[in-house]
């Protein structure tokens, strides 16, 4: 059979077998293998590597697109020099992702603009790369979803916010919640306790959580479970959004020349 017909049949078979990346790269990879005198084994290996990489990329794109995260950023994009008081080693340790295998939680605490969401997002993105299921939500969206699923335990259990190996709950403490909503949040926390990791960002110190949750007994129960196995990262510095601006405000910083 002439090469052209063989190539057409092979292409059609690769489509039927759902190996689109291998199929699309086939002519080019074949030509290169011939040029370089690659062995059959090397050629097959290259082609299947293409397929695996392509499928992996698509899985990742889908996971990130549907993650609910506010944006996609990485640790590489985080400028530690902008936060000199941040415990860099503690942050870097998180990025080995072992906290996920231990089902531990992470807190990023600090005022607005210091990079809490950025670091939480970067952790989730790294986790997605490593094959973990992730989900991102703000506290107010989470509460809304929990209310929606209230009384429907089956649906609640199927939802990504309860199932994912890593859930980011962003902006805890920005909006007050009712006593009933506190209970829903408690149930969410209890259902994930020692089973999956929750990453929380908050502009409130733990001492302010009691006010947020109305009920001191409930807040103790929530924090007890969240903090039992956890890493707390405090970011005390200036807002990254306002960088450059606080120079003029800070009387201890000499003016730039
Ligand atoms: P918040 O602490 O309020 O959650 P964000 O993490 O959303 O703040 O940070 C606000 C913006 O500034 C984002 O675009 C984020 O990527 C950026 N940012 C914050 N801190 C840093 C940093 N140290 N290096 C690079 N970008 C940063
Ligand atoms: Mg934020």
Write the layout of secondary structure elements.
Blueprint: H1 3-16, H2 20-36, H3 40-65, H4 88-94, H5 98-101, E1 105-109, H6 116-129, E2 134-138, H7 139-148, H8 153-158, H9 160-163, E3 166-172, H10 179-192, E4 197-202, H11 209-212, H12 216-228, E5 230-234, H13 246-249
Parallel strand pairs: 1-4, 1-5, 2-3, 3-4
Bound molecules: adenosine-5'-diphosphate and magnesium ion (MG).
Residues 73, 77-79, 82-83, 112-118, 201, 240-241 line the site of adenosine-5'-diphosphate.
Overview of this structure, please?
Helices cover 53% and strands 11% of the residues. Helix 1 runs antiparallel to helix 2 and helix 7 crosses helix 10. The C terminus is likely disordered. It is of the alpha/beta class and 257 residues long. The N and C termini lie far apart (77 Å). It has a five-stranded parallel beta sheet. Magnesium ion binds next to helix 6 and strand 3.
- Helicity, as a percent range: 40-55%
* Total helical elements: 13
Order of helices and strands: HHHHHEHEHHHEHEHHEH
Global morphology: elongated
Straight-line N-to-C gap? 77 Å
Strand count: 5
In percent terms, what proportion of residues is strand? 5-15%
* Biggest beta sheet attributes: 5 strands, parallel
The pLDDT mean sits at: 90
Ligands: adenosine-5'-diphosphate, magnesium ion
Give the strand order of the largest sheet, numbering strands 1, 2, ... along the chain: 2-3-4-1-5
User: Radius of gyration over alpha carbons?
Assistant: 24 Å
Give the structural class.
alpha/beta
Task: Outline the low-pLDDT stretches.
Answer: 247-257
């Amino acid at each position: 059979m002439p090469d052209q017909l063989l190539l057409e049949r092979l292409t059609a078979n690769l489509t039927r077998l759902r190996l689109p990346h291998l199929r699309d790269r086939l002519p080019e990879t074949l030509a290169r293998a011939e040029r370089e005198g690659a062995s059959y084994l090397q050629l097959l290996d290259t082609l299947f590597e293409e397929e695996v990489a392509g499928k992996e990329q698509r899985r990742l794109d889908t996971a990130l697109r549907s993650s609910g995260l506010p944006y996609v950023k990485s640790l590489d994009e985080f400028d530690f020099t902008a936060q000199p008081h941040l415990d860099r080693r503690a942050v870097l340790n998180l990025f080995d992702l072992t906290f996920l295998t231990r089902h531990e939680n992470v807190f990023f605490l600090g005022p607005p603009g210091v990079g809490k969401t950025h670091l939480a997002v970067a952790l989730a993105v790294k986790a997605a790369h490593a094959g973990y299921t992730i989900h991102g939500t703000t506290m107010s969206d989470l509460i809304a979803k929990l209310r929606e699923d209230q009384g429907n335990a089956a649906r609640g259990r199927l939802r990504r916010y309860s199932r994912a190996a890593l859930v980011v709950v962003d902006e805890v403490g920005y909006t007050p919640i009712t006593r009933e909503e506190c209970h829903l949040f408690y149930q969410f926390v209890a259902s994930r306790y020692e089973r999956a990791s929750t990453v929380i960002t908050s502009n409130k110190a733990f001492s302010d959580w009691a006010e947020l949750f109305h009920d001191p007994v409930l807040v103790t129960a929530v924090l007890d479970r969240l903090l039992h196995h956890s890493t707390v990262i405090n970011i005390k510095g200036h807002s990254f959004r306002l960088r450059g601006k606080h120079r003029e405000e800070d009387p201890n910083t000499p003016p730039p020349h």
